[in-house]
Structure formats: structure tokens, C-alpha cells
UniProtKB/TrEMBL annotation:
<protein>
    <submittedName>
        <fullName>Tubulin polymerization promoting protein</fullName>
    </submittedName>
</protein>
<dbReference type="GO" id="GO:0046785">
    <property type="term" value="P:microtubule polymerization"/>
</dbReference>
<keyword id="KW-0963">Cytoplasm</keyword>
<dbReference type="InterPro" id="IPR008907">
    <property type="entry name" value="TPP/p25"/>
</dbReference>
<dbReference type="GO" id="GO:0005737">
    <property type="term" value="C:cytoplasm"/>
</dbReference>
<dbReference type="Pfam" id="PF05517">
    <property type="entry name" value="p25-alpha"/>
</dbReference>
<dbReference type="GO" id="GO:0032273">
    <property type="term" value="P:positive regulation of protein polymerization"/>
</dbReference>
<dbReference type="InterPro" id="IPR011992">
    <property type="entry name" value="EF-hand-dom_pair"/>
</dbReference>
<dbReference type="GO" id="GO:0015631">
    <property type="term" value="F:tubulin binding"/>
</dbReference>
<dbReference type="GO" id="GO:0001578">
    <property type="term" value="P:microtubule bundle formation"/>
</dbReference>
<dbReference type="GO" id="GO:0005874">
    <property type="term" value="C:microtubule"/>
</dbReference>
<comment type="similarity">
    <text>Belongs to the TPPP family.</text>
</comment>
Amino acid sequence: WGSEESFRRFAIQGDTRATGKEMHGKNWSKLCKDCGVIDGKSITLTDVDIVFSKVKKKSCRTITFDQFKEALMELAMKRFKEKSAEDAAEEIFKMIEGKSPVILGVTRAVASPTVSRLTDTTKFTGSHKERFDQTGRGKGKAGRVDMVDTSGYVSGYKHAGSYEKKVKPGPKQM
């Protein structure tokens, strides 16, 4: 059923080496949180952790899909006390079916006043000021590098370009 797919998605979440065949405690609690299994009343994060420790093998840090089903059964009984084991299981699996991990605000750039202040180019002073034009666009290399005169003449030399004339081979001298 669809919860196997969800198990796999949560099992590999945040772990590049995960195969999706077993699930860490961290991802188990995330699954319970994201799917609304934890309601803070009948089921808390602690319950979820206890059940995880209960179903996993002693030396293991992960649970298999079968252990996962077992763990969910435990929680289902706790969450839906008034229902039969079958119905409770069905309810809880419905909550998980087709779900994927919720990944919150990883990519949103934070507009904090500090960052805005530090990146406001109109307030720059000294040599940094030279690096931006009036609109705040960076001038690139031109704003950073003192452009070097590579003509070979000492700066301020009046007769730049006159070398060729002097050395031009005239008539051969004996």
C-alpha cells in the first residue's frame, strides 16, 4: 500500500547514503510530525521515540518497513483508542499515505535589517565606494583593480611613444 512509498521517501530524507530500506529515528519522528500522527495530546514526540526504541532491534539505529508498520500499529492504538485495531491501523496509514517530507524554508533568503544595511552600497565609504556606480551596480573588475598602464613608460613620462622614432634603423653607420 501507499505507505511503503512514504516510508521510503522519509527514510532517505536528509541522508544521501540511505537506501530507503530502513529508517533512522530522526526521520521516523519527522514522519510522525509531518503526517500529523503526533497531535500533542494522545501522541507526543516522546511516545514516538519510545515506540521506535521498542520495535527496533537492540543494536540497530534504524527500523525496517515491517518494524515501521509495527510501530505505527502501536501508535494507532494509542491515537484511536475507541477504534478496533484494524480501523485504527487504517486511520493511521491513511495519514501517511502518499506523504512526502515537508522541507521548510531552506531556500528563502532572509531579509534581515542587518544584511540590508551591510549590502546597501550607497552607504559604502573609502575604496569600496569606488566599486559601485550610482545605481548600486558593481563595476566588476574596473572598480577593484587599479588599471595598470602597460605601455612600458614611467607614469607621467611626456614623450610616450617616441621610442620607435629614435631607434628606427637609419642608414648603416660604419
